[in-house]
Amino acid sequence: MSDITIYLCTGLILAGISGASIFIKKTIGDLPDRIHQKNMEQIKHINSKELQIDNYFRQISGKEIETLLFSWTDYISKVWSEDLTGVDVPKMTSDVLRFGSGEAIRRLAVMLQFEFSIKKKEDPTKALDNFVWYYLIAYVVVQLKNDFTGHDIDPTDIIKLRLEDYENKETKNKFKEAQKEAKKLLGI
């Protein structure tokens, strides 16, 4: 074979290897990016659908949602003062079912079940139960606030807004214990 033939064959082989290498890199190397892009498109589709649902509810029921959030914040104030004048818990519950997220409904169910269990006890005024119940209500309010505004708030801040003696060491300790129990009941 002549040198030119060897040179040409070597060049063709190297070009073939180089081309195959580029092909493999492009095909296999881009695969993770294509998978990521496909996953991002699916997430965008899901989020878009959730936004459409959220906007629909806000358009048809903005005033009702505002009233619902107000009624629950008012309720938490009245529960502590034991003056439940004007509180319509069945309507509030119905409105949470209509407008609340799945998580808000779940938290409400836990809170109501806990309330029912308190009423069945021999001593329904057991202090810790009342503190836990108060926290469970606060967690419902927190979830509704998040559902309707997108803002996350700490349930302890809601409680601090309603209590004059929260900073009292004994009261604070009871609420810390109650919060642990409420979180346990809610699975959070």
Walkthrough of the structure:
There is one protein chain. This protein has 188 residues and is mostly helical. The chain has one domain (3-186). It contains seven helices and no strands. The protein has helices at 3-29, 31-81, 89-99, 102-120, 127-149, 155-162, 169-186. Helix 2 packs across helix 5 and helix 4 (102-120) packs antiparallel against helix 5 (127-149). The chain is elongated and about 105 Å long. The mean pLDDT is 79.
Describe the largest sheet: none
Strand residue content: under 5%
Distance between the termini: 79 Å
Which radius of gyration do the C-alpha atoms yield? 30 Å
Percent helix, as a range, is over 70%
**Tally of individual domains:** 1
Low-confidence stretches: none
General form: elongated
Summarize the structure.
This protein is an all-alpha fold. The chain has helices at residues 3-29, 31-81, 89-99, 102-120, 127-149, 155-162, 169-186. It has one domain (3-186).
